[in-house]
Amino acid sequence: MGRTLVARLSQKNHVELLALLEQLVLRQPDIEPLIELLMELPLATTTQERSRPGKGRERTLDPSTVRSQVASAFYHAGERRTGQKRAVAGR
Fold it and tell me: Is 64 left (phi over 0), alpha (psi -120 to 50) or beta?
């Protein structure tokens, strides 16, 4: 993401950001599982925080979050596969 986009987004309020996300999902519905996945991950730190020593640089994983992400990935992969089977069977 370009720095100018981040700067512009940082000036939007909560409601405006939600509206932008809603428009993005409406225009690109395939992105919704990616957004769901990213919401489960710890937020990426800013460039400034990455350069600081200490906690800002630590990475932690929550096993339950990883299990949830894997389950979601398999679930959504199964949906696509089932839809492909139906499309082929319908020919």
Answer: alpha
